[in-house]
Amino acid sequence: MIQIAPSILAADFAKLGDEIRAIEAAGADIIHWDIMDGHYNPNLTFGPPVIAGLRNATQLPFDAHLMVTNPDAIIEDVAKAGCQMISVHVETCDPKVTLPAIQKLGCKAGIVVDAKTPVEELLPYLPLADYVLVMTVQTGYAGQKMIPDCLEKMKIVRDKLKELNHAIPIQADGGVTPDTLKLFLDAGASILVAGNAVFKSGDYAKAIQQLKS
Ligand code: DX5
Ligand code: ZN
User: Fold this and answer.
1) What is the pLDDT of residues 109-128, one digit of tens each?
2) Is 143 in the pocket of ligand 1 (CB under 6 A)?
3) What is the mean pLDDT of each successive set of 10 residues along the chain, which is 213 residues long?
4) From edge to edge, which strands make up the β-sheet containing 131-135?
5) How much distance in Å is there from the Cα of 60 to the middle of ligand 1?
6) How far is the CA of 40 from the centre of ligand 2 (A)?
7) What percent of the chain has a predicted confidence (pLDDT) above 70?
8) Which atom number of ligand 1 is nearest to the Cα of residue 194?
9) Which protein residues have their CB within 5 A of the ion that is ligand 2?
10) Is the CB of 7 under 6 A from ligand 1?
């Protein structure tokens, strides 16, 4: 099953409630929140208070992708804000500590490998994770082109999960469009994060359908 997770980073920030209701009506499966602190990468986005303020706009699960230098300091607030899924970068924490801490908060725990990081750094933590996110652009901004090398990393993750007999979903994040879609699916992705492909499409339902078909 393919799930589409529109990334709020590409939404119109002047009307976030309406945007969230619109993507739910359009067939989105998960709401993807890119939390950035201005340190891990140069962008600074939103945090738990903004997410909590939008929790009642939809029934869909909230997935927080933490691009912050100290995720351990905020996971509790992110869970309390209403996120059911929280993913952390292998570059920013000790996953042996942080993934169980997320699970203890009642959330699914995701492990992320950045585009610039060798995939080998992620592999030891796969058994601890409920899902895995492979960045396919440099973190920071929506609307970038997918980096083809990252697809190779995704295939290595897919093969490793098979070898471990650990059937967890792989999220692809960055540069997902109708044109690149097949490459992501072939590499093993089943949750597609999509920023511009949804929010800059002009027709959310059509864009989401196109990605699902
Ligand atoms: C980048 C974010 C992505 C981004 C994806 O740091 O993690 O979620 O919003 O946007 P698109 O789909 O436009 O590449
Ligand atoms: Zn993201």
Assistant:
1) 999 999 999 999 999 999 99
2) yes
3) 97 98 98 98 98 98 98 98 98 98 99 98 98 98 97 98 98 98 98 98 98 92
4) 3-6, 191-194, 170-173, 131-135, 108-113, 85-89, 62-67, 31-36
5) 19
6) 13
7) 100
8) 12
9) 34, 65, 173
10) yes
**How many angstroms separate the alpha carbon of residue 32 from the centre of ligand 1?**
9
Report the CATH number at residue 182.
3.20.20.70
Question: Is the CB of 34 within 6 Å of ligand 1?
Answer: yes
- Taken in order 134, 136, 140, 143, the sign of the CA dihedral is negative
For the chain, how many structural domains are there in total? 1
> Can you say whether residue 175 is alpha, beta or left, with left for phi > 0 and alpha for psi between -120 and 50 degrees?
left
Active site residue 34: yes
For 111, the domain range is 3-212
pLDDT of residue 213: 85
**pLDDT tens-place string over residues 154-181:** 999 999 999 999 999 999 999 999 999 9
